[in-house]
Amino acid sequence: MADKPRILVQLDTDALPSVFDRVVAVDAGIDRIFSYGGVTPQNVMALVHGCIFTRGPADLHNTAIFIGGSDVDAGEALLAEVRKHLLPAFGLSVSVMLDSNGANTTAAAAVAAAGRHVDLTKISSLVLGGTGPVGKRVAKLLARHGGKVLIGSRQKDRADAVAAAIQASVPGAKVEAASVASGGDAPTALDGRELVVAAGAPGVVLLPRKYRTASKRLKVAIDLNGVPPTGIEGIELTDKAAERDGQIAYGAIGVGGTKMKLHKAALLQLFSANKLVLDLEQIYALVGSN
């Protein structure tokens, strides 16, 4: 007997489920997509039970859950609640992926791009906008590789909190925090750094070109802001390993190709078993095959 259709249940914390995430799922080859908006920890139990009680344990690998929405904190809370209502001990479970606001796939793609040009186990890097959803994830992945990571933020106390959280979850992490309240703080923050990743708010220049070009050790600059002006001045949205002022540059669209491949690969991975939880590190683990 042929396998049952693959069903992806999209749980979105926003009122309207993301069209982007639905299109990517269709392009990945998912057979059916059931989309729900305004999902909260308080109303998710019935949706999870609808996933696990409708098919026998042998067929549950053909059902999976994708958690999205623009609020990453809300997505993480939803994932925690979803996991409470799965029953893996009885074989009644489905695989789950979290990618609210594309934070996991974007961070994984950015670090993968950097790793093509520098040794991530040895470099010193600066993450601007390091307290945002993507910045925190970029910093954590870089720290896991073993290099030195400086988290830059306009609010030093927030950067300190992110650094402490990474140190608590990544034994031996070499992570520090720095205040970058203005572009003028860039020279100090960039001192000795070979990689800079900008993951700040759209339309805000975090690293002026004059400071970037003055940096003697900087080798790779990655900007993840898709709304002009770019976060790193002088980098274009479409740059993909482009040479800019003697440095290797990536823009948001240049990173986007890898991000899309990872997103699709992770969706398909969900249907290989019924007990997977794909969060940041599990998605990043797919980089080598994509």
Written overview of the protein:
- The chain is α/β, with parallel strands linked by helices.
- It is 37% helix and 20% strand.
- It contains 10 helices and 12 strands.
- It has helices at residues 19-28, 45-52, 72-84, 103-115, 133-145, 156-169, 186-190, 209-214, 252-270, 280-284; strands spanning 7-12, 32-36, 63-68, 95-98, 124-128, 148-153, 174-179, 195-198, 220-223, 240-244, 247-250, 277-278.
- A 7-stranded mixed beta sheet has the order 7-6-5-8-9-11-10.
- The protein is elongated and about 60 Å long.
- 48% of the residues are buried.
Summarize the model shown.
With about 290 residues, the chain is an alpha/beta fold.
Order of helices and strands: EHEHEHEHEHEHEHEHEEEHEH
Q: Residue ranges: pLDDT <50 for 5 or more in a row?
A: none
How many helices? The count is 10
What is the CATH topology assignment of the largest domain?
A: Rossmann fold
CATH class of the largest domain: Alpha Beta
State the main characteristics.
Rossmann fold, 290 residues, 37% helix, elongated
Protein topology:
Elements: E1 7-12, H1 19-28, E2 32-36, H2 45-52, E3 63-68, H3 72-84, E4 95-98, H4 103-115, E5 124-128, H5 133-145, E6 148-153, H6 156-169, E7 174-179, H7 186-190, E8 195-198, H8 209-214, E9 220-223, E10 240-244, E11 247-250, H9 252-270, E12 277-278, H10 280-284
Parallel strand pairs: 1-2, 1-3, 3-4, 4-12, 5-6, 5-8, 6-7, 8-9, 9-11
Antiparallel strand pairs: 10-11
